[in-house]
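Supplementary Text 2. Reproducibility record for the structural model of the 487-residue chain.

All settings were left at their defaults, and a single model was retained for analysis rather than an ensemble. We include the record here because the model underlies the residue-level annotations in Supplementary Table 4.
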Amino acid sequence: MNVSAQPLPARVTPDQAGWLMLNTAKLQVAAGYQFPPEAFQVQKWTTALFIENPRGYCLNELGTGKTRSILFAFDALQKAGMVQRMIVLCPLTAMRRTWYREILLFFPHLKATILHGSNREARSRKLFEKVDIYIINHDGLEVLQESLMQRDDIDCVCVDEIGGYRNGRAEKTKLLRQYVAPKDYVWGLTGSPIPRAVTDVWGPCSCLTPHTVPKFFTIFRDQLMLKKGPFRWEAKPGAEERAVSCMQPSVRFKLSDVTELPERVIKYYQADLTSKQKYVYEAMRKQSIALVGAHKIDALNAGAVLSKLMQIAIGYVYTRDGKTVHMDNTPRLQLILDLIDSTQRKVLLFAPFKSAVAAFSAFLKTNKIDHAVVTGETTLKRRDEIFGDFQDTGRYKVIAAHPGCMSHSLTLTKANTTIWAGPVTSLETFQQANGRTYRVGQDDKTLVAMCGGTPMEEKMYKLLAANEQLQNRFLEIVEAITEDITR
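Retained model, structure tokens:
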């Protein structure tokens, strides 16, 4: 647990006197806010940090109630006359199912609207409706930039999953930096402050707390990392602590600080490859090892090699013309079916490729398993319907999905089993997707079942389960796969 806040100045000078009076008022607001009986102590502490600090970060783990903490803080500050209106920037899947739903159920006195849709003019009109909270997806900031710049009364900004702005030189980060600069209150939320590299914090910090990081990214990178090759950087000792210390003031609580959740088991399940899979996989593997030995595979194309090996192992391979070839993968399909049948509760089934999601859906349909599919092509309206039916009704035994479409802000505790048909290369995606079932509200033992049939997949799962990054380790993984897959 880590809680940090701006300290009182040792001496009060004339220019600090106003700040001290304001800070005292904030302390009174934080102390006097009436929380509902069900609020966790963690939420109260998190709320106090945001009330007392105009800029701050919530780094709490998944499932600790970050959304409601932000709403508590805004509600308290608005009632005290310190803020007028708030805009929430969040992932597409979190707009209605998370933020709008929380406001509707627990803050009925606050009015909110969702700014989303293909009609830009309609969105602009909704923006000028006088409500308390505007909810917008991250890409919507660019769409409504001109209209938003005219709204001085929106003086509070919450950036949910601020880790998405880790590329400080991206246009969307530059736009956020410009937009939040004059705002009175700006809060950032993420449970994964350094999802890929220690330098990931520079982008968010350059927007929210620019005084905590150097002005230029290259200076920050050189302070925290050492160059080990043309495309490879390694963190210096203590770099992780240095990176997180830039996100100040901040609060960090673990899920165990909130409640005692039932046990969670993360387990690897072996599904042997068929003879056709073994033949093709082994040929591809040997070619990859030969290319590594000849120094013809580098960090730029190693990802493509791993992707092809994973497709073969799962059983659905993309061809050069964009079509999909199905390779007999009966053992993996049977394992997935057995895992689904082993629980009376609902199930999340993740596959790292869209073609595999479609194929698994066809398999579930053949076996008469009530399910829904969520991929990047699933509309926001349809996603909301699926998640609502899955969590709130008896409909759907399984959601088959690409994990990138369900890795943030969703509560799906009616499921107690998460099945990975194959590994992903992103630790953040793996952790976030697993967090859909393991969070407050879960009342049953949960299982994360990692399905694989090759040493490469097993090694990737071990890295993910150990909270290790796979980025920049592609070569190491490929080089390590020298075992005979038949074992």
